[in-house]
Design goal:
The chain is α/β, with parallel strands linked by helices and 457 residues long. The chain has three domains: 1-77; 80-266, no CATH class; 281-454, TPP-binding domain (Rossmann fold). Helix content is 59%, strand content 7%. It has a six-stranded parallel beta sheet. β4 (374-378), α16 and β5 (409-414) form a beta-alpha-beta unit. The protein binds NADP nicotinamide-adenine-dinucleotide phosphate. Residues 206, 250, 254, 304-306, 309-310, 337-342, 344, 379-383, 413-416, 418, 420-422, 440-441 line the site of NADP nicotinamide-adenine-dinucleotide phosphate.
Length: 457
C-alpha cells in the first residue's frame, strides 16, 4: 500500500482514539466513544495489514482465530460485576504480546542505542505487567488469597529486584550482543510483577488494574518507538496517561493514598462484621415503602453494587417513571466508586434508558440531601456509610460519601445485614428515620412498582 495512504489511515485512527476518550467521559456520549474506539482499532489493523512489511498472513489468521476463540467467550461469559478481573486478564495478554514482540525484535536485530533503550523499556514494562495483571486477576477472582502478604524489608527487596533489572537493561543498551543477559533481565521483570502485587490487598486491586493498564500502554508506546510506528506511540501514550489519571481519581474517591496502594500492606479485605451483637432495626414491606415514596415530593435513588448483582436497573427505571408520573422529583445520586468499577452505575442506568440529566454526581447532590424527602438506597452500603466522616479509625475514614443520612427518610434495599466491600457495619441502618427494605433489589423494586402501579395510581 502507498505510504501516504496508510499514514493517512493511521492519522484518522489516532483521531478516533482521541475522540473515543473525549466522548467516553460523559454518559451522554459514551456509546459514540466506544464506537469511535472500535473504528480507530479497525482502521489501525487494516492499515497495518496492508503495509508491505507483513510477511505471513497465515500466522496472522491463526492468531486472529485463536484470539477470538478466547476473547469472545471471555466477554460473553464474565458478568458485568467481574469487569475488573476481565480487564486484568485481557491486559495481561496485551502486555505479554508487547513484551514478546520486543523480545523478537531484540533477537532479530540486537540494535544499539535508542532503539535498544525502547526495547528494554517495552519488555520490562510488558513482562512485569503480564505477571502483575495475572496476580491481580487471581486476587479479584479469589483464586488467590486477597490478603496482602508482607514481610520485613519488602519494599527495599522489591525495589532492589527492579533496580537490578534496570541495570541489566542498561547494560543491554550498551552491549546488546550479550544475549545471555536478556533472559535474566526478563526473569527479574516477571518476578517483580509478582512481588509488586502480593503486598496489595484485594480491596485495592481495581485501582491497581487501572495503574497496570497505564504500564501496558507505556509498554506499547515504547514498542511504537522501537518499531517506528507513530500510531502505537499515540495509542500507547493515551492508554498510559488515561490509566494513570483513572487510578489517581479512584484513589481520591476512596480516600486512599497512591503510595499506600502501591506499597501495599493496606486495603485488606474484611469479610465479615461477625462477633457483633445484633442490633434492632426498623423494616418495612413493599406496600408501606410504596406509600411513603408515593407521598414524597423529592426522592433521591442511590444505587450501589447490589443493584448490579440483582440487575435491578430496569425495574428501577420503571419505578422512576411511575414516581415522575405522580409528580415526584426523582434524581439518581452517583458515587464515583459505587459498584466495582468506575462508571459502573452509569453504564447500568444507561442500559435501562434512565435519562442522563437525572444522574447527579456526588458533589452536586450532597447539597440537596438535607432537603430530600426520601433517600432510596438500592444495594449500596460503603458509599453511604457515615463512618467515613465520623470514625477516624474506620477503614473507609475520609472517603467522600453521599450524604443520605441528611435526608428526611432513608430507605435501604438489601437482602440482610451483611456488610459491603469494606466489611464494616453501617450506622445508617440503625437511625430512627431509616427503614430497611429486606430482599433482593430486583424483587423488592418490582414489588414497589406493582404497588405504585395499581393501588396508588
Ligand atoms: P458495597 O459497599 O459493596 O455494598 C453492596 C451492598 O449490596 C451489600 O451490603 C449487600 O448487602 C447488597 N447486595 C448485594 N447483592 C444484593 C442484591 N441482590 N439485592 C440487594 N442488595 C444486594 O457497595 P457500594 O456501596 O456500591 O460501594 C462500593 C464499594 O466497592 C466501595 O467500598 C468502593 O470503595 C469499592 N470499590 C469500588 C470500585 C469502583 O471502581 N467502583 C473499585 C474498587 C473498590 P446484602 O448482602 O445484605 O444484600
Amino acid at each position: 500500500m502507498n505510504f501516504g495512504v496508510y499514514q493517512a489511515l493511521y492519522i484518522v485512527s489516532a483521531g478516533c482514539f482521541i475522540l473515543a476518550l473525549k466522548w467516553m467521559s460523559s454518559p451522554a456520549t459514551s456509546r459514540r466513544g466506544v464506537l469511535s474506539g472500535e473504528l480507530g482499532m479497525l482502521l489501525a489493523i487494516v492499515a497495518t495489514l496492508l503495509r508491505h512489511e507483513v510477511v505471513n498472513f497465515e500466522w496472522i489468521a491463526a492468531g486472529l482465530i485463536l484470539g477470538s476463540a478466547i476473547g469472545v467467550p471471555l466477554a460473553m461469559l464474565m458478568p458485568m460485576t467481574h469487569v475488573p478481573q476481565r480487564t486484568a486478564i485481557s491486559q495481561a495478554c496485551g502486555a505479554l504480546a508487547s513484551a514478546l514482540i520486543g523480545t523478537a525484535e531484540y533477537f532479530r536485530l540486537k540494535p544499539h542505542g535508542f532503539i535498544m533503550g525502547a526495547l528494554v523499556l517495552e519488555t520490562l514494562l510488558g513482562f512485569l505487567t503480564f505477571t502483575a495483571s495475572l496476580m491481580a486477576f487471581g486476587k479479584l477472582q479469589e483464586v488467590l488469597s486477597s490478603r496482602p502478604i508482607t514481610f520485613k524489608g519488602q519494599n527495599i527487596f522489591n525495589l532492589g529486584i527492579l533496580g537490578v533489572a534496570v541495570v541489566l537493561g542498561g547494560s543491554l543498551v550498551v552491549h546488546p550482543e550479550n544475549t545471555l543477559v536478556f533472559p535474566v533481565f526478563v526473569g527479574l521483570a516477571l518476578l517483580f510483577g509478582v512481588l509488586m502485587i502480593i503486598p496489595i490487598g484485594g480491596a485495592d486491586m481495581p485501582t491497581v488494574v487501572a495503574l497496570l493498564n497505564s504500564y501496558a500502554g507505556l509498554s506499547a508506546c515504547a514498542m511504537g518507538f522501537a518499531l517506528d510506528n507513530k500510531l502505537l506511540i499515540i495509542a500507547g501514550a493515551l492508554d498510559g496517561s488515561s490509566g494513570f489519571i483513572l487510578s489517581i481519581i479512584m484513589c481520591r474517591a476512596m480516600n486512599r493514598s497512591f503510595t499506600n496502594v502501591l506499597f501495599g500492606g493496606f486495603g485488606q479485605l474484611q469479610t465479615s462484621a461477625a462477633g457483633q451483637e445484633a442490633r434492632p432495626v426498623r423494616s418495612a414491606s413493599p406496600e408501606e415503602a410504596a406509600a411513603i415514596l408515593g407521598d414524597a415530593r423529592s426522592v433521591v435513588i442511590i444505587p450501589g453494587y447490589g443493584m448490579a448483582v440483582a440487575q435491578a436497573q430496569h425495574k428501577i427505571r420503571e419505578l422512576h417513571d411511575l414516581l415522575v408520573k405522580r409528580g415526584v422529583d426523582v434524581k439518581f445520586a452517583i458515587h464515583p466508586v459505587a459498584g466495582r468499577m468506575p462508571g459502573h452505575m452509569n453504564v447500568l442506568l444507561a442500559e435501562a434508558d434512565v435519562p442522563y440529566d437525572k444522574l447527579v454526581e456526588m458533589e452536586d447532590i450532597n447539597s440537596e440531601m438535607a432537603m430530600t424527602d426520601v433517600s432510596l438506597i438500592v444495594g449500596a452500603n460503603d458509599i453511604v456509610n457515615p463512618a467515613a466522616l465520623n470514625d477516624k479509625n474506620s477503614p473507609i475514614a475520609g472517603m467522600p460519601i453521599i450524604d443520605a443520612f441528611k435526608s428526611r427518610t432513608i430507605m435501604v434495599i438489601k437482602r440482610g445485614m451483611s456488610p459491603g466491600f469494606a466489611g464494616i457495619d453501617n450506622e445508617l441502618y440503625y437511625m430512627d428515620k431509616t427503614l430497611m427494605l429486606f430482599g433482593d433489589a430486583k424483587t423488592f423494586v418490582a414489588g414497589l412498582v406493582k404497588e405504585l402501579g395499581s393501588n396508588h395510581a
